Model the fold of this input.
Amino acid sequence: MATANALQLEPVTLEDIPAVVDVWFAAFAESGVRHLFPNTPGVRQWWADANRDDLMHKSFQKYVKVVDTESIDEHGRPRLIAYAKWDLSMIPDRGRRFPPWHEEQPAGECEAFFGGMDQVRLRVMGEQKHYCRKPTPRLRLSRRDTDIDRHRITDLDMLGTHPDFRKRGAASMLVRWGCELADREGVGAYVDASKAGAPLYMKFGFVDHSSPDSTTGIAAMARK
Done:
């Protein structure tokens, strides 16, 4: 069992991609959207390629991980037990959230689901942009990783914790990192959370702005 002081927050690297994919499929094994991402070798490779493209080409997307220094993986490194992807772009500037869907995914349903989430984010947070000073995150990220010129909000695009390491504080560490970044920049933060996960975000000042008639099971959480 991981102790609180054994958990460390670090930037995700390219060599972490296989572990990130493993954590995602373990974390969302019973998710209501899991059928959009079948656990097949092809879709796993699609996820790996998508994450690699983000890390290599999208400086506005920040991948952060929590490792357990008391648990060593098969490569002799501290085990990656949770990760988050914070997106610092506005939707019109970001482009497609995901690459073209894999042939094993229901493309039409994927487009409808994630397109709907983007529309909710626009409704809650708006589209106005402004320039911000460059952040100085607590993590030692590279100059490229901190090259953020224009954004209005920070968006928690993805957060997953391996089921074997839940209730240890890893998710809170990842949420706190993004909230502190947003506070330094004087901007808001947004996340599409599960209803079950909403209480975690409320602890950090997020408010549920979901429509009363929403049937998606997703909470539109904003911290303005």
In short: Helices lie at 17-27, 41-57, 91-94, 107-125, 170-185, 198-202.
